[in-house]
Specification:
CATH topology of one domain: Alpha-Beta Plaits
Strand content: 35-45%
Order of helices and strands: HHEEEEHE
Number of strands: 5
Helix content: 25-40%
Shape: globular
CATH architecture of one domain: 2-Layer Sandwich
Largest sheet: 5 strands, mixed
Oligomer: single chain
CATH class of one domain: Alpha Beta
Structural class: alpha+beta
């Protein structure tokens, strides 16, 4: 029974990260609140919030892109910053009128 509980917990942990598993953060670096793509600043930390969500305290970090031409990097930025700060809920503000997957 104990092994079954451990296995179940492991499966949940692994599958909860599956959304970011196939996202690439190649070429992105994170330093001092800024995200760089091949040495160019593409996003800056614009806000940090502390919230009570689903009965636990969470930290939400919001990054704002420096230009809408970097919308396609949003998912990679989320992955990069989440890997560096696993307890953060990461958001990236994009241009709502542009397709981020172009």
């Amino acid at each position: 029974m104990k092994k079954l509980i451990i296995l179940f917990t492991l499966v949940i942990t692994i599958t909860s990260c599956s959304e970011l598993r196939h996202i690439s953060s190649d070429g992105l670096t994170y330093e001092n609140g800024s995200v760089y793509y091949k040495g160019i600043v593409v996003a800056k930390l614009s806000g940090v919030e502390v919230a009570y969500d689903n009965r636990k305290l969470v930290t939400e970090a919001t990054f704002k892109l420096t230009s809408s031409e970097y919308n396609h990097l949003a998912y990679g930025i989320i992955k990069l910053v989440s890997d560096k700060n696993p307890k953060w809920e990461v958001e990236v503000e994009i241009n709502p009128y542009a397709n981020i997957l172009k």
